[in-house]
UniProtKB/TrEMBL annotation:
Keywords: Signal. It comes from Paenibacillus barcinonensis. Gene3D superfamilies: TolB, C-terminal domain (2.120.10.30). SUPFAM superfamilies: Tricorn protease N-terminal domain. Transmembrane segments: none annotated. It comes from the Bacteria. The keyword Oxidoreductase does not apply. InterPro entries: 6-blade_b-propeller_TolB-like (IPR011042). This is TolB protein. Residues 1-22 form the signal peptide.
Amino acid sequence: MMNCMKAAFGALGAVALLTTVACGNTIEPSGNTQGAKTGTDITVKDNTNTSVYQNFKLEKIDKLPNMRGVAWLSESEIITDKENTSMKSVRVEGEERYPHNLYMVDLTKGTDTLLKESEVNLGAPQVSPDGQHLFYWETEETTGWPFILNLQSGEAVAAGKQDGFIQEGAWLDNEHVVFANMKGDLISAALDGSTKVLVETGSFNVSSIKVSNNVIYYITGEDGQLNAYDAKTGEVRQVLKSVEWVIPSNDGTRLAIVKRTADTKRALVLTDLEGNEKATLARGTQIFGTSWSGDDSKIAYTINSDKDNEKGLFVSNTESAEQFQISADMDNVADALAWSPQGNKILLSQSVMENETYHFVTSIITISE
């Protein structure tokens, strides 16, 4: 069980940093602020790397300080969490800290709009497939309580009354989310907050919950057992062992799997739905953030390594398995990477230290082919 906890800490540890040591800098307004409560500074970083990686070219990197970008709402809008300085602060270790709330950032206007206000920290938002609802957590370090927010009305309902590990959960369809409680049960929650138990896994730590074509993938146990639950038949099958992360393709025909090959070695492989390996895309000390592009032609991910040419943000072609390094500086990410709807931008968030204080920085990486 401890091995599973260590594997999950790469993502969960960043969440804990967010709730305990995030910076409280005020963001000055910029651009058109009509309809938004505060503005957002967008710093544009020119591409100093003129290399063209076969079919890919890095066009630019836009930096958004003091916020954690997680998901795309449209081609020009992202969902983030950041400090809400209009709420009451608390003093921790000599610093004023404000609760992190959920915002929508308009990248074109440079403005942000508050989606959900709370006196407690909110995080790990996931947008429903139809873009109408947001699944999120009231967070307390690495655990929390799940909620569903109606993006049209602004009303939120509790997704049951059980807590669980934040960062674990996925939309089953437009009307249901699935997550794991602290007992390790897979729970389905409807938009009205009603819940039901889908699987009693018997494992304290359930991780990497993903959904594809009515199949829920999840990992249990010290041996990294990848399981697949069929939401239509209720059947559970075991797919593969030594798995740390699973990411199904959007068309539901392949799996991207980060597997443990040794204590300090990981590999990113593509498999069929039975776990049979078809290609190896990357190797490293740790591999995080894996995300398929919308058309499944590319996969973005980050690698931790001691060598600059083997670490950072990469994109691989899923047919040829060609690997392209985008940046060696982006090797520690807080969440899964996210491709924009048109597939030419990658959303990435990192926890960075400045002036002896940690805070989040969101990057929008634009590439061309």
